[in-house]
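Standup notes
- DV: blocked on the single-chain target, sequence here:
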Amino acid sequence: MKLKNKLIASVVAILAAISFALPTQVRAAKGDVVLDWSVYQGNYGKYGNAPSKAVIAQVGGTYNGLYVVQSTYRTQVSSAIAAGNHAHTYIWYQVGGSIPVAKAAMDKFLPMVQTPKRSIVALDYEAGASGNKQANTDAIIYGLQRVKAAGYTPVLYSGKYYLNEHTHYSQINKAFPTSLWIASYPTTRTVTAPNFNYFPSMDGINMWQFTDAYSTPGLDASVDLTGITDNGYGRSTTTDTGKVIVKPDTKTPATNAGQSANDTHKSSISAGYAVKVNLSAKRYANGTAIPNWVKGRTYKVIQTSGNKVLLGSIMSWVNRSDVEILQTASQARSVLTVDGYWGREVTAALQRHEGTTVDGIISGQIRTNNVRGVQIGRGGSRVIAAMQHNLGVRVDGYLGPQTIKAMKRALDTKHDGVISNRSRMVIVLQERLNAGTLPF
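- DV (later): unblocked, structure below
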C-alpha cells in the first residue's frame, strides 16, 4: 500500500513510545510495528531485518469497478501466522462516491477474507475520489458498515490531506470512532522506528503508517497506537526457543496452513520448504557473518545436510536453528502458478476442493477443451459432476459448453463456452483456488 503523494506532516505531536517485555503468554502491545503487504511483496510477504508483530495483507480491490484479486493473499496470511504475527486484511477501495461500486466490491471481497473474525479489514481509500465530498463520505461509511456487519473490525486507510480534500471526515469519525489508519512519511530514508516528532495529528487514529522503507526499501510499516491489531486473536505463546505461536479466535484455511507450518519441527525441513532467516541469526554454517540484508527474508530450501539447510537464490548454508518455517513442501505444492493454463495441478486443486479422488486427471471426456490431463472416453468425471452440482447445471460429468459458461458466470468472466489458451477464466480460477474462495 502506498500513497500516491507522500505526506510530510506539518503538525508536531510528541508521543511516548512504550516497550513491553515478552512473557510466555503475551498480548501484542501498543507501539508494535505492523507490516502491510500486497502482491509486490511476493507469496510469503516481506519481513525486512527489523521486528514486527502484525501484518495486513491485501485480498484484492476495485479500481472504479474493475476488480482485481491478489493471488498472494492466502499464502501471505499463512506466512504471517507461521512467523508468529497477527494477520489482518485490507481491500483497495477505489470506489469514488459510488455506492453500487462499493457494494459490488464488498460482495466480492468480504467472502474472500481469510483472517479470523474480529480481525481488521481495512478499506484503502487513497485514489479515485469523486468531486462530491458527501458521496465519497457515504461510500466510505457504507463500506465500513459492511465490514462491521460481516464480523470484522472496520478500519479506513488514507492520508490526512486526501481525507480533508475529498471527504467530510468528521462524519466518518462520528460513525466509526478511532477507525483511522493514517499514512504520513517524515522521510523517504530507511528507518526502523517511528519518529513521533512528525506524528500527523488528527482525530480517530488507531495506526500510523510512518514509512515505506522499514529496514529495507519497499516495505511499508505502521505503528499500532491502540492495540487494535490484537483484535481477532487470543494471547500468543512464546516458547523457550523464542518461537511465537499465535492463536486466532476463528479458523480459516489460511490460518490453519500457517499454524500447521508453525507446528512443524525444524528437523522436518526438506527441499521445497519456505523458510525465513531469523533476525537473531549471526553466522552461516561455515562460520562467516550473515549480513543484515539476508535476515528476515524468505528463501526456498534447495537441499539439507544434517543440521544445515541450503537457501535458494543466495546458495548459502545456514543452521536449521537459525530459520523458521513459513511453508512446508506439501503446502508449497498446493499453490498454483497463475498463468491461465488448466493443467493437472489445477485439476488436482479442484479435486481437493470438491472432495473427490486427487489424481490430476479429468476422465471420461469427449474432448480436451484446451485442458491438460484429460482422458478421452465415456462416463464423465466425478470432479466435473461435483462442480456441476454446485453450479446448478445438468450433472453428467462432461466439461462441455454449458458447464464452462456456468463456471465463467460464477467467476465473473466472459460468458462463452470456450476455454482458450491463457484463459482469463482459468487465471481467475487459479487465483480463487489459491485464495481458498472458489464460489462452486
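- Follow-up: The chain is about 25% helix and 20% strand.
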